[in-house]
Every structure is written in structure tokens, then in C-alpha cells.
């Protein structure tokens, strides 16, 4: 089972969630369910998009990260003043970030969806050999802002 913590940050921000997920087929489901903590801090459409993208990134980590002996996937979701910032870290070696619009089909549709839905995203290699894929999106949907 996932071990997670949620803690308050400040008056302009919402919670910060950190969940350590197993590198097992159950990880995407656990990650999606964990994201429910942001429901009162973002529009429903944004929460749905975050859940979808978390599921895609965690699935990529389970499928593609070389994880000897089980390993863990770290999911961090931060509700900031105007946005939601999500990162998924695994012990895998990563891949090249391709510019927006060109897609990165190495991992199936996951990164394509991240590229299309999020406001911005990136890939960072961690000093210990791991990789973090992150994305950020506004807390309020365009439909809600227009209304």
C-alpha cells in the first residue's frame, strides 16, 4: 500500500501530497486515487486532467523504468497559488525531452497527453540516476474562467 502525507502549506496554497508507490500494476490506480486530495482546490475539469496525467506518468514508470528488486515511484502533487504542480520520479534512466508539438512516442500516448493537456512539462535526471517527469497546469479551467 502507498504511504502518503498531506500537509498544509500557506494561505495561498493548498496541500502538498507525497506518495511512494510500488512498481506494480496497482500503482496508477493508487496514484489517481491519491490525487483526490486536490478536489477542493481546483476546478473539477482540472482535477480530472491531473488524474489522467498522473495515471499516464505512473504507468510509464511501471512499464519503462528499470527497477531491480521492486523499487518505488514517488508521486508529488503540490497545489500552488494559481497552479497544480505534479512530479513522478522513478529510478529509471529517462529519455530525451522533445519540444512541444513533436510528441514523444517512445512511451505510447502518455507523454503526448501530457504535452497536449498540461501548461508546461519537463524531464529531469536526478543525481542518483533516477528520472523525474513533471507537469504544471492552472487550477482553474478555461471554461470556468470564461464564464
Under CATH at level 1, the class stands as Alpha Beta
State the distance separating the first and last CA atoms: 41 Å
CATH superfamily heading: Histidine kinase-like ATPase, C-terminal domain
Order of helices and strands: EEHHEEHEEH
Strand order of the largest sheet: 1-2-3-4-6-5
| Helix vs. strand class | alpha+beta
Share in helix: 25-40%
Stretches where pLDDT is under 50 for at least 5 consecutive residues are: 1-11
CATH fold naming: Heat Shock Protein 90
Can you characterise this structure?
This protein is α+β, with helices and mostly antiparallel strands. It has one domain: Histidine kinase-like ATPase, C-terminal domain (Heat Shock Protein 90). The chain has helices at 27-34, 44-64, 110-117, 142-146, and strands spanning 3-7, 16-22, 72-79, 83-90, 120-125, 131-138. A 6-stranded antiparallel beta sheet has the order 1-2-3-4-6-5, covered by helices on one side. Helix 1 (27-34) runs antiparallel to helix 2 and helix 2 runs antiparallel to helix 3. The radius of gyration is 15 Å and the shape is globular. 31% of the residues are buried.
Amino acid at each position: 500500500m502507498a504511504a502518503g502525507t498531506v500537509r498544509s502549506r500557506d494561505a495561498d496554497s493548498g496541500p502538498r501530497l507525497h506518495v511512494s508507490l510500488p512498481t506494480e500494476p496497482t500503482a496508477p490506480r493508487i496514484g489517481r486515487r491519491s490525487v483526490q486530495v486536490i478536489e477542493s482546490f481546483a476546478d473539477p475539469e482540472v482535477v480530472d486532467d491531473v488524474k489522467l496525467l498522473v495515471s499516464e506518468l505512473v504507468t510509464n514508470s511501471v512499464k519503462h523504468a528499470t527497477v531491480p528488486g521492486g523499487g518505488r515511484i514517488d508521486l508529488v502533487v503540490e497545489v500552488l497559488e494559481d497552479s497544480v504542480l505534479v512530479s513522478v520520479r522513478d529510478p529509471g534512466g529517462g529519455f530525451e525531452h522533445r519540444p512541444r508539438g513533436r510528441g514523444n512516442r517512445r512511451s505510447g500516448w502518455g507523454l503526448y497527453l501530457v504535452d497536449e493537456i498540461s501548461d508546461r512539462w519537463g524531464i529531469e535526471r536526478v543525481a542518483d540516476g533516477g528520472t523525474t517527469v513533471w507537469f504544471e497546469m492552472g487550477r482553474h479551467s478555461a471554461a470556468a474562467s470564461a464564464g
